[in-house]
Amino acid sequence: MAKIKVTKVRSAINRTQNQKRTLEALGLKRIGQVVEHDDTPNILGMIKKVNHLVSVETK
Fold it and tell me: 59: pLDDT confidence band, cut at 50, 70 and 90?
């Protein structure tokens, strides 16, 4: 399974509760924090919800 790196690049202030929870579910708390996930449909759907707050890099 492919891996992807997700980096939080923008703040979650003034965002909806769903977007804040999605960032937390991805494991992102601080700006600049990087997490690595498998390339699954569940993870890709969560990234799509908050794509304006994160950057994605494939490995």
Answer: confident
Instruction: Give SS3 for 41.
Output: helix
Q: pTM to 2 decimals?
A: 0.94
Distance between CA atoms of 58 and 11, rounded to whole angstroms? 22
- What integer pLDDT is reported at residue 12 of this predicted model? 97
What are the structural domains of the chain? 3-58 (3.30.1390.20)
Q: Where are the beta strands (DSSP E) in 1-59?
A: 3-8, 34-38, 54-58
Ramachandran area for residue 50 (φ above 0: left; ψ -120 to 50: alpha; else beta): alpha
